[in-house]
Structure prediction request, 130 residues.
Amino acid sequence: MINQKLLTMKKLMLLITLSFLFYSFQAEAQVIVNGVNINEIEEVKICRVVARSVGFSNKVTITIDYGQDIKWANVRGTRVTRPDGTIEVFNSLIGALNYMENNGWEYRDMNFMVSEREMNTYQYYFKRKE
Prediction:
C-alpha cells in the first residue's frame, strides 16, 4: 500500500516537473529586423510589413518598418532575419502574415501600391497584441 502511494507520488512529481520544463523552455516570440528583436522594444506598438516576391516563385521576403532610422535605399536594414542572421524566406505571402500573427502581432490593415516601375507592393499594418 505504501509502495503504491509512493509510486503514484513519484509519477505526479515527474509530471509536474516535465510540465514546468515544457512551459519554461518554450521559445519566446521573436521578430528580428537587422539584428533587433522588435518584440523587446516596448515603444514599438505598430509596424508596417512590406512583402516582396523572391524571383519567379511564390516565396516572399518581408521588410519591416517599426520606426527605426532607415538609410535611403537600404532595404537590407529592414529585412526580417533568423537569430543566426540569415534572411527569413517564407513559402508564400500567407506564411509571412501567419509568422507575424504567431509572433505577437495582430493584422490591422492592408495597402496596395503600384510604383513608377509598375511593381506591385503590398503593405500590411500590424499592431502588437496585448
About this structure: Helices lie at 2-24, 93-102. The CA atoms of residues 30 and 39 lie 6 Å apart.
